[in-house]
Write a structure and sequence with these properties.
- The protein is α+β, with helices and mostly antiparallel strands and about 375 residues long.
- The protein folds into 2 domains: about 140 residues, Nuclear Transport Factor 2, Chain: A (Roll), CATH 3.10.450; about 200 residues, no CATH class.
- The chain contains 9 helices and 12 strands.
- The strands form 2 sheets. Strands 1, 2, 3, 4, 7, 8, 9, 10, 11 and 12 form a 10-stranded antiparallel sheet that branches. The chain has a two-stranded antiparallel sheet with strand order 5-6.
- α2 packs parallel to α3 and α5 crosses α6.
- The longest helix is centred in the first third of the chain and has 25 residues.
- Pfam families: Amidase_6.
Length: about 375
């Protein structure tokens, strides 16, 4: 009889419900679900451009939260205005996030994550299939939980597609045509023939595509080349990446390191390897590169006596574009090809870009420095 009572008691203890308390793992799962939904809605905002879509994820009474909300609305407005001025239409956006760190303290949480975004556009009225490109961004987000639930209290990230829509240069991508082939003038061609070939353009572009980081479309599982130091938090990694594309001996363009332009694999890169203006000066002084043109958006696309198709038409895959602000080079990207309508596409780091239209994220005050890398 005693054995039966003990067995019944055990069964009773198993079936009686116990008080449920939220654990840290439950809270973390809740936060991750919130973030997945947040970025899903923010991605669709880029297509629909309806600010009400994301308002509930922010607290407009909190200054830093309001600023983060306004930033997302500005970038959605910018990308739609850019598309309008370029004669294209964005028709689809997809994204994913990779959460790398979650720290929970009471009703606050600090998160680090990577956002991988794919945007697809079309040329209305043209028989051209949809074109896609990718970006990748690193985010630091602080969340706060109130009675209404979680909301974004603050956010930090380097955004490659946010600018003032009022400062976008006017020009339609529809004006670009397939007859804008990659060409060099006679002087450049003779130099290429007489010089020993050192630069492997195909490998340079393959490298740029493989190591384009968190951007949609990039290879290597969205990771940078581990041989090289990441300068993202030391002023940016764009020049370091451009140097890798040109100078990596195993996978890249194979240009010899010399004249102060080098990378020491246990130390890091020299100043010309990692700093924008020093890199540009090295390319010109060494003879590795030649400035085709420098000027505003209008300056580099318009036909001239020297550049009958416009200076942009002379860029080849593996060439570079420097983005100059207030007299200094602010960024470098690598030309990796053109879309099916002939528009130049680029890759870069900080933020990560994969086959992105070359002027997206820049304005009418930007000076574009077009650099041809000699073969």
């Amino acid at each position: 009889m005693k054995k039966i009572i003990v067995n019944c008691l055990c069964v009773f203890l198993l079936v009686v419900p116990r008080p449920v308390h939220a654990t840290e793992s439950d809270t973390e799962a809740e936060i991750h679900a919130f973030l997945n939904k947040l970025f899903e809605v923010r991605t669709q905002l880029l297509i629909e451009n309806n600010s009400r879509m994301i308002e509930k994820y922010y607290n407009p009474k909190q200054k830093t939260s309001l600023y983060a909300l306004q930033h997302e609305n500005r970038r959605a407005n910018y990308i739609q205005k850019w598309a309008e001025k370029r004669g294209v239409a964005f028709v689809e956006a997809n994204s994913s996030i990779t959460i790398t760190r979650t720290k929970i303290q009471g009703n606050m949480a600090t998160i680090s994550l990577l956002h991988t975004l794919k945007l697809t556009y079309i040329y209305p009225g043209k028989s051209i299939r949809p074109q896609s490109f990718g970006t990748g961004t690193r985010h630091g987000i602080r969340l706060e939980k109130t009675q209404a639930g979680w909301h974004v209290a603050r956010e930090w990230y380097s955004d490659p597609i946010e600018e003032n829509p009022a400062t976008i240069p006017s020009h339609s991508m529809k004006d670009m045509s397939h007859n804008q082939a990659f060409v060099l003038n006679a002087v450049d061609q003779s130099e290429s023939v007489t010089r020993m070939k050192k630069y492997n353009r195909n490998k340079a572009v393959e490298y740029a595509n493989k190591y384009a980081g968190a951007a949609w479309g990039a290879g290597n599982d969205h990771r940078y080349n581990p041989k090289y130091r990441d300068y993202h938090h030391e002023g940016g990694d764009c020049t370091n990446f451009a140097s890798q594309v040109l100078g990596d001996q195993e996978e890249g363009g194979g240009l010899p390191m010399r004249s102060g332009w080098y990378y020491r694999y246990k130390q890091g890169g020299s100043t010309p390897w990692v700093r924008t203006d020093s890199f540009k000066n090295f390319l010109i002084r060494s003879g590795y590169g030649k400035v085709i043109a420098r000027g505003s958006y209008a300056d580099v696309i318009k036909p001239t006596i020297r550049n009958r198709e416009g200076a942009m038409a002379r860029l080849q895959p593996g060439d570079l574009i420097g983005y100059e602000m207030h007299g200094d080079i602010d960024h470098f990207s690598i030309v990796v090809g053109r879309d099916e309508n002939g528009y130049v596409l680029v890759n870069s780091h900080t933020g990560d870009r994969y086959r992105v239209p070359w002027d997206l994220g820049w304005d009418k005050y930007t000076k574009f420095v077009l650099i041809h890398i000699r073969d």
